[in-house]
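REVIEWER CHECKLIST
Item 1: Sequence provided? yes
Item 2: Single chain? yes
Item 3: Sequence as submitted:
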Amino acid sequence: MPASPETVRQTQSALQWLKDHATQATLDGMARFAIPSDHALGVTMKDIKILAKQLGRNHDLATALWDTGVYEARMLASLAGDPARLTAAQMERWCRQFDNWAICDTMCFNLFDRTPHAWDLAAKWSSSKSEFVKRTAFALLWSLSRHDKQAGNDKFIQGLALIEREATDGRNFVKKAVNMALRAIGKRNPALKAAAIETARRPAASSNSTARWVGSDALKELGGS
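Item 4: Structure as written out by the authors:
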């Protein structure tokens, strides 16, 4: 369904605001953080948050912002989106378009982890062949460990099983998210810390170099070595 005239107006206004706050220095600096700048303007996250605060939650606007393809507009969409209106299908569609770690993690921490679909999609995406879809699975586990105050330990124990299963994936942005999810779950409470340490010890003893790094680094963080 096409966007309403008001949503079109709001989208154009938001894009103009972003362009007005863009700098070449910010754009040039993105490469240092492995963020593609092909579709970026060069706006800091601090400024994006200022605009997001002005706009508030507006899911129609978030959808229109995402559809622009502009990096900063998509980051803004993570803050404007309404988790109650975000469907699993829309999450799937956006996730398939992730092309860098920053949009992936920002979307997880600001929006995806607040939806009722987060746990199921994390499990589904954890075996994806796509590097950034798979990273999203573990970024979600990482963010859920911080934000889902209602979830019981069982869900995170299941998450630890996914982490152990995928600890050998050597792709840079996957292994880092797997490691961060393991560390974050271990910091949630004492029981999960013990479970995370037990989980980390197995890959740490693996003959696979990626698994060893994932496990050993988590053990250093959690005090299990």
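Item 5: Key structural point noted by reviewer: The mean pLDDT is 97.
Item 6: Recommendation: ____
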